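### Sample
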Amino acid sequence: FLPQVDSANAGRVLASDAAVFLKKSGLTDLVLGKIWDLADTDGKGILNKQEFFVALRLVACAQNGLDVSLNSLNLPVPPPRFTDTSSPLLLSGTASSDLPWAVKPEDKAKYDAIFDSLNPVNGLLSGDKVKPVLLNSKLPVDILGRVWELSDIDRDGMLDRDEFAVAMFLVYCALEKEPVPMSLPAALVPPSKRKPLSVPGAMPLIPSSTSTKESHQSLPPVGILAAKTPLTQ
C-alpha cells in the first residue's frame, strides 16, 4: 500500500495523502481520526513507514470489529481491505454480489413485521420512528449510533425494508455479545444494495455500496440519537 500514498518515495506519508487513502477502507471519519491519532505518535501530521503500518493494522482491527487501540495490534486479523481495485491484493475472492445474504429468510420475515408495524411512509422509516426500537434494546447509545450508521447504507437518513433488517440483525448480534463491526461486511449488504462490479474479474472486498460513503464530510449528520452520541458531530 505504501507506494500508493508515498509517491515521492520519501519514506513518509502526509496527513492529506493518508486521509484520501484511508477513506477507501469504508470506516467512518470518527474511527479514522482515532486511528490517525494513535499512529501519528509525535503529532506532526506525518507518518513514517512504521507508523503507516500501525495505521493499516488498526484499520484491519476496526474492519473486523476489534477495538481501535494499541492493545489490538498484536491480535491476529486479516489484511485491511480497501475499495481501490487497482491493487492486486483486491483481485481475488468471491464477487460480493454472489454472497448469500447474512439475514436468514425466517429472520427477515420477523424484521419485516416490525417494519410494517412502525407505519413506514413510501416504504421508508425515518430516524424518529426507528429510534425507539433501537433504544428499546437497552444497548449502549454509541453502539446504537454505529448500528444506524451501518444500516443506513444509502445515507438518506431513512431506512427501507432491507436496511431495517440489517439494523435489527446488528442489534440482535450485539445482544448476543457479538461486536458490531466498524464497517458493513459484504455478506450483510442487502442484495438490493449491491452494485455490479465495473472491473471484469476484479472485486473490492468491501461491498461496492460503501464506495458512496467515501466523503462523509459532505453528508449532513443523520440526527438519530444526536443528543447522546458523538457519531453525529
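The two ends are 30 Å apart (CA to CA). This sample (EPS15 factor) is used throughout the tutorial notebook.
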